[in-house]
Amino acid sequence: NIIYIILELYSRIGGMHYALKSSAPAEVAAAVDVNTTANEIYKHNFPNTPLLPKTIEGMMLQDFDKLNFDVILMSPPCQPFTRIGLQGDVADPRTKSFLYILELLPRLSKRPRFILLENVKGFETSSARDALLKTLREFDYSFQEFLISPTSLGIPNSRLRYFLIARRPPGSFSFPTSAEVLFFCWQIIEGFPMSESLNSLAVPHSHPTSSECERDKTGTIIFKLETEQELERKRIQDSQETTSGSVSAAPPKTLLRYPLLMDVVQPSSRRSVCFTKGYGHYVEGTGSVLQSCVDVELEGVFKSSELLSEEDKLKQLSQLKLRYFTPRQIVSLMGFPADFTFPKHISIKQQYRVLGNNLNVHVVSHLIRLLISK
Ligand SMILES: *[C@@H]1O[C@H](CO)[C@@H](O)[C@H](O)[C@H]1NC(C)=O
């Protein structure tokens, strides 16, 4: 029985590690990251995994050789490749550590058999990607590139990302690879869940009934849970929600200024937009807000509010009981298990920040299975 030995680079809060749990018998030989906040969260959830708080460039060839890994999983820093960034690409110092990995790869005493890389959309046109592909070809790796959003797995959250999976002999991919960057290529994998709603997946507090809305004057979150699994989830959330309760209700001023810029979703929605790192602080373009009282018509409220006084507008809008998704809800949307927690001293703002460049565990987990399948 094979146990894959993993090197997890730029490990952040452990999304790759969680993806392994449901995809491959594996042991993480080392996780490497310099971000102290992310590292505290990683350590809190994986106390037994060696976590090296280092830059990749700070590690020598021998350090890597000692780890004796078969698989590299990595999410290199993405800023250089984002479309809104400066497109600094390989000239950007943040790309240096990635190029350093490419340099080391051929010199390792045992080259890894499997590689998985995640990045932002835009990486596929960068020169860092060209350098990666050149190295892979040179050392006999076959590979496939993808652009995937969790929505293509039926998960109600958009987060379009670039992925590459690569392997070298012995063995080859169980599907014919293509030189194209594949979009939504799920016909390769079988057994996908059909689209689920936020209610079942990410928003364990389901919406209150109209009478409960009436009683919900204080803005406390009402739980209405169905299954045992959800009760367990609730127990875990209850212990966390005490700290996040105050930020989870969108402040009225924000509502009044930006109602039309917000992406409002309901618990029954089958979609939500990508949560970015300013979520909870800036309204425009940072992620969806949840309408927790669904018997009020959204359009009606926005339409009638045009003719009303400021105060009445606020009253109308507050009927919707808009809330920010809590960090806990976002992590479940991203596929993290119920037992994932943040250390107590990590503030809500920090939680939103680290979640902003997080990855979707389900997507990676499917890709790992695809990567190692015979
Ligand atoms: C760690 O990452 C978060 C989220 O990207 C960022 O806001 C923070 O500044 C980083 N901290 C350090 C010490 O690099």
UniProtKB/TrEMBL annotation:
Domain of life: Eukaryota
One Gene Ontology MF term: methyltransferase activity
Active site as annotated: C78
A Pfam family per the record: DNA_methylase
GO CC term, one of those recorded: nucleus
Gene3D superfamilies: DNA Methylase, subunit A, domain 2 (3.90.120.10), Vaccinia Virus protein VP39 (3.40.50.150)
Any single GO BP term: methylation
Keywords: Methyltransferase, S-adenosyl-L-methionine, Transferase
Keyword Nuclease: no
Family to which this protein belongs: Belongs to the class I-like SAM-binding methyltransferase superfamily. C5-methyltransferase family.
This protein's name: tRNA (cytosine-5-)-methyltransferase-like
Native species: Sinocyclocheilus grahami (Dianchi golden-line fish)
Gene label: LOC107599711
